[in-house]
Every structure is written in structure tokens, then in C-alpha cells.
Amino acid sequence: MSEKAVILVSGGMDSATAVYEAMDRGYEPLFLHTSYGQRTEAKERECAEALAEEVDASEFLHVETGHLAQIGASSLTDEDIEVADADVESDEIPTSYVPFRNANLLSMATSYAEAQEASAIFIGAHSEDFAGYPDCRPAFFDAFQQVVDVGTKPETDITLEAPFVEWSKTDIAERGLDLGVPYELTWSCYRAEAPACGTCDSCAFRLQAFQNADVEDPIDYAERPDYRSSGADG
Q: Binding site residues for Zn(2+), as ranges?
């Protein structure tokens, strides 16, 4: 029997690629999707569920958590904070940063993995994430691995996998295209549930990745600026 892996599936392209990466490595995927009050939570859940059906995932756990929205301080969860237009060259922490979100999500994933006797947890974080989000840095994942090792039963052995942590978004898109990821079933926009705006940070990095790969992004956009001329990784 295949070993099982819990995969944090947001509905976006990075986590979808992580699903296919895990399956390519021989893991049986267990989906964990969280709604935490983000602006596009309905669309994200719809995409995560569609991907689970596409790959015939054996488990799909949807968890609703209100505390991240109650805490606020992010444009993803607080309607009073505007989602900023993209600046793909900025090294500032963007307003879309949800304070310590990945620690919250990975804690749930660890509980789920231990309960299901899974041997791995996959998260799709990558280099352009950790440029702006402190909880996407390699050092964070190394530290969280220690938390997993210390905080679970002695017989529990769970490896935290962040396979794209040193990759650019373009690298992820190219890997996903090679693996046959159905990117038409994914969503990245921070602002809207249809069509994608094309101008927030998440849309910009996604569009840039597909443009660098010379492949048209299969989802609909209100605008499709050309981001290839920017100085970001690609």
C-alpha cells in the first residue's frame, strides 16, 4: 500500500502542483482545505473540491476556522484593508500577509496526519512567498519539523515537505505542466471569485509564471498585464 501524505490544498496553483508532486513520489493524497474568512473562500473551496475529484483523493477534510479573520490585520480577511495592486519587485511584507497563518494550518495538518497515520505533510510554499511572508521561509519549515517531531507520539514519523521552497513560480508552473496539473481547476486571485482581477500580487505572480513558460493561463481574468519584463524571479 502507498504511504499517505496530508496536503494543504488551498485551491491555488502551488498547492495543486504539490498534490501532483506528492502523487508522483508515490503518496496517496489526503486533502486538507481550510476556510478562514478569506475574501475568495467559496471559490477556493470549489477549486479544492474539484481537484480532489479529479485525482480521486481518498480523503477530503474541510475545516472552517474563524479565528484568523477575527484576529485580522490582513487584506485577505479584513474588508477594511484594501488588497493592494501588485508590485512583483517589492521585498516588503504585503498587506495580504495573514499573521502566522502557516503555523495554524500546519498544526491542523499535523493533527490530521498523525490521526491518519500519514508519513508526510506537503505544502506548496515557494521562494517568492518567503520573500514577503515570514512563515514561508525555509528556516520556518525546518523549525516546524522540530515541533512535529517533539509534539507527536514517539512512534509517529511525519516528514514536512515543502518541495518548491527554493523555486520560483515559473519553476512551479513548468513542473506542473510536465505533471499534467489541471490549472483550469485552480484559483489564485485575492480580490474576486470571477473573473480574476489580474492585478493583485497573487494574480501577477501567477500570470508572470505562465507568461515566462510561454503558456496561456487557462482561467479568466478581468485584465492580463504582461509581467515578463519585471525583475522578479522567473
A: 189, 197, 200, 203
Cell digits for 156? 509517529
**Within 10 A of 202 (CB to CB), how many other CB atoms are there?**
24
Q: What is the CATH class of 4-181?
A: alpha beta
Alpha-carbon 180 to chain mean position? 18
The tens digit of pLDDT for each residue in 107-158 reads 999 999 999 999 999 999 997 765 678 899 999 999 999 999 999 999 999 9
pLDDT tens digits for range 76-115: 888 788 887 877 677 777 777 888 999 999 999 999 999 9
Binding-site positions for ATP read 9-19
Which residue positions form the known binding site?
A: 9-19, 189, 197, 200, 203
- The DSSP code sequence of 167-217 is --HHHHHHHHHHHT--GGG----SS-SSSB-S-BHHHHHHHHHHHHTT---
Contacts of 188 (CB under 8 A, 6+ apart): 12, 13, 196, 202, 203, 205, 206
3-state secondary structure of 76: coil
Taking the model in full, what pTM does it have?
A: 0.93
The whole-angstrom distance between residue 230's C-alpha and the CA centroid of its chain comes to 23
